[in-house]
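Review session, final week

We close the course with one last complete record, chosen because it touches almost every idea we covered. It is DUS-like FMN-binding domain-containing protein, a protein from Fluviispira multicolorata with 404 residues. Go through it on your own first, then we will talk.
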Amino acid sequence: MSVLSSTSKNNISNNIIGLAPMEGVTCLASRLWFSQTSYPDFAMTPFLRVTRDYPWKRVASTYAAEIFDLKKCFNYDLIPQLMGTSPEDLERIATPLLSNTSFVDINCGCPSPKVVGSHAGSGLLEKSEVFSNFVNGLESRLGEKKFSIKMRSGFTSDEEFPELLKIVAHAKISQLTLHARTRKDRYTGKARWNLIHAASQECSFPIVGSGDITDFKSFQKLSQQAPNLNKFIIGRGALRNPWIFKELREKTSVTISNQVLITSLATFAILQELVVRDSQKLFNLIERGDFLSSCDTNEERWENLYHKLSNALFGDYIPTAKLNVERASFARVKMIWNSLRSSLPEKFMEPTLLRSACFSDFAHSFMGLCEKKEILLPLEYKEQFDWIYSGAKNHEHENQQRHN
């Protein structure tokens, strides 16, 4: 049975945990990389913004490659996510996707000012009648259970949630993913899992819980607040610890070697580069079955995968210490590193690595921070760095510094 259709109740061994959709992050290359670090049960594409004029006929081959010709070549399921304000426009793009997947997800939660300014994402929640008409329009055009919704608990206040939940509960959708923060909250404060629990009691379809899962301890605490759930997604927590899905399965923190870490980041860089420069070479490796199993924390597996990708991109093996990729690909490595470093020993918060001009410089600086005796590096969630990734101002951190 596909993990996307399971409805078993919350039990540690039965939980279905996926990689959340993140704008500018969860592209094909990144999804493949997460499938190698600790493989989520499913992943979601970043939202594809649909308007009257875009995309017109077809989506890019790399947008949702996992549901088309390469469908059986991955160790995770994929949920394509769309964003728009017109059910008619969304139908145009959803229809070809639905010939290859059971449902598409509709983004009603993105808090970006640009998105909200065009009345998409969480902007759809501002007026309940607009949201109701939108959901009804989707149901009329796409059909029952052909779409799911990802939303927030309100636009400015949780007081809006009961009315929004009532609208969704009466819809015939496949599932509801609830990030229990308002649009006004963005990523600050704490997600209100009591609202997620309320949704699970009100709705007849599966609820997917989202917000603040950063390690096994937080997962235990939050999932107990919504005991009816067995489906969850992780976004920022996976960026800070890409091996979090392994931690949740094994119920213990993960340690990795410094060589695994640098090789995995080099692999991430080449994946980004291949998608842009020659996606067909990457598709050939995928079709061959090279991504069906995970590298996990195994140094030999990571080295073998890196070797294959290096040969595909450069025609030869390039050691990680000499790897150089285009600026855009390296920028994505630094994006991942900016979050990941917060789970490593505190010395890795050293800003020098983020200032590296190329991957080879980054690798040299990273290995320079690793002492010879440091064979294994612990990956542990550290609350004191939350402010960096929430977008909140660092008032509390500054106050702590003054008192220390």
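Two points worth writing down before the exam:
The mean pLDDT is 91.
The longest strand covers residues 147-154.
Good luck, everyone.
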